[in-house]
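User: Can you recover a sequence for this backbone? Please restate the input before giving your answer.

Assistant: Of course. Working from this structure:
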């Protein structure tokens, strides 16, 4: 007998909507999301769309009431619950536009729960467009199948971050002057964690001393090669996920 086709098909569009989803809910769409479905995907009444809401998981909906610039999605079957999220923060110094966008995108794809922009003395960027970065997070989550969106918070200065550090969360920081191999450091401190990545010029000596003085701090080396800040962030997150058993 012929195999039953997968439902919904692998080619089904996938969108994040900031609406609590449940069977029978009607979700009106306009703007860029409606344009994408109507003009780009050429959706017709009854075509499926995967939706997730960062609350209840992923659902399949069907397109209805399609007009030139808007449509309605009628929610049906619950496909899966919201994913469990590894308890990892990425605390990263802002870097140039394009590179910070890439960093945010990869942090989402790799499973980070919270992103904290950290202002340091050698930071070359002190302002971020958080709305643009959140849009990158949403797009990355839509494409990589996440059902939970990472949180991104307002930038914080390094002394304030260290001064309010929560008890019980290990702080792994990329130490350009050397440290324990990252994988070893992470295996030795299981549980809630955070990765701290400095700017292109690295932490200055006073900042490095302040970080090292933290009881939660774990200096780590990311290998023998000099890494760009965005590469260091992605590498460190991948190592943490592997040590935590997420991979």
């Amino acid at each position: 007998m012929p195999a039953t086709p997968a439902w919904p098909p692998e080619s089904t569009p996938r969108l994040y909507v900031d609406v609590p989803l449940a069977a029978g809910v009607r979700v009106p769409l306009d703007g860029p999301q409606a344009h994408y479905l109507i003009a780009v995907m050429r959706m017709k009444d009854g075509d499926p769309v995967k939706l997730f809401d960062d609350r209840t998981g992923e659902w399949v909906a069907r397109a209805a009431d399609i007009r030139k610039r808007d449509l309605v999605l009628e929610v049906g079957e619950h496909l899966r619950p919201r994913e469990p999220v590894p308890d990892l923060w990425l605390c990263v110094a802002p870097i140039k536009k394009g590179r910070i966008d890439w960093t945010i995108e990869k942090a989402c794809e790799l499973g980070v729960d919270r992103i904290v922009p950290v202002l340091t003395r050698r930071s070359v960027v002190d302002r971020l467009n958080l709305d643009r970065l959140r849009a990158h997070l949403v797009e990355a989550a839509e494409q990589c199948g996440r059902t939970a969106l990472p949180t991104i918070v307002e930038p914080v200065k390094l002394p304030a971050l260290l001064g309010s550090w929560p008890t019980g969360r290990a702080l792994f920081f990329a130490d350009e002057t050397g440290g324990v191999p990252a994988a070893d450091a992470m295996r030795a401190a299981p549980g809630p964690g955070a990765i701290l990545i400095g700017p292109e010029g690295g932490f200055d000596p006073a900042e490095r001393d302040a970080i090292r003085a933290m009881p939660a701090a774990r200096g780590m080396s990311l290998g023998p090669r000099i890494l760009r800040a965005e590469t260091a962030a992605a590498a460190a997150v991948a190592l943490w996920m592997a040590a935590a058993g997420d991979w």
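That completes the design. Helices lie at 31-40, 99-110, 130-144, 158-163, 182-187, 205-212, 229-244.
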